[in-house]
Amino acid sequence: QVQVVESGGGLAQPGGSLRLSCTASGSIFNLNSMGWYRQAPGKERVLVANIGNGHSTNYADSVKGRFAISADFAQKRVSLQLNNLKSEDTATYFCYLIYLNIRSAWGQGIQVTVSS
């Protein structure tokens, strides 16, 4: 059984910062990549950032230069630092991981709200 648990998030003002963390546990072998998606109300879930086990990173254009992803693959942890937040960053953020090349596991999602 695989569990993926997110923490952090909450309410921030425009221009503020938040940090999201995610820890996975269970029968996870050959962890390939971890990352974050987000879904705003009425919109599709979209990739925010991901990181491979060689620590290569990939970011959505909308967050480049503002968000930073980091991971500890041995501990099965991934974090996302959100800086210079904008109202359009408001969404539910989902942590995910890919292991054994084809298997995926997702967290329940955590809310990020950017508002003054």
List keywords for this structure.
116 residues; single chain; mainly beta
Shape: globular
SSE run: EEEEEEEEEEE
> Which structural class is indicated by helix and strand composition?
mainly beta
How much helicity do the residues have?
under 10%
N/C terminus separation: 40 Å
Give the uncertain stretches in residue-range form.
none
Beta fraction: over 45%
Note the total helix count.
Answer: 0
Sheet having the most strands: 7 strands, mixed
Mean pLDDT: 96
How many strand elements? 11
Radius of gyration, taken over Cα atoms and rounded to an integer in Å = 14 Å
Descriptive notes:
The chain is globular, with a radius of gyration of 14 Å. It contains no helices and eleven strands. The N and C termini lie far apart (about 40 Å). Strands 2, 4, 5, 6, 9, 10 and 11 form a seven-stranded mixed β-sheet that branches. A four-stranded antiparallel β-sheet has the order 1-3-8-7, with no helix packed on it. A hairpin with a 4-residue loop joins strand 5 (about 45-50) and strand 6. It has about 120 residues and is mostly beta strands.
What does this entry show, briefly?
With 116 residues, the protein is mainly β. It is built from no helices and 11 strands.
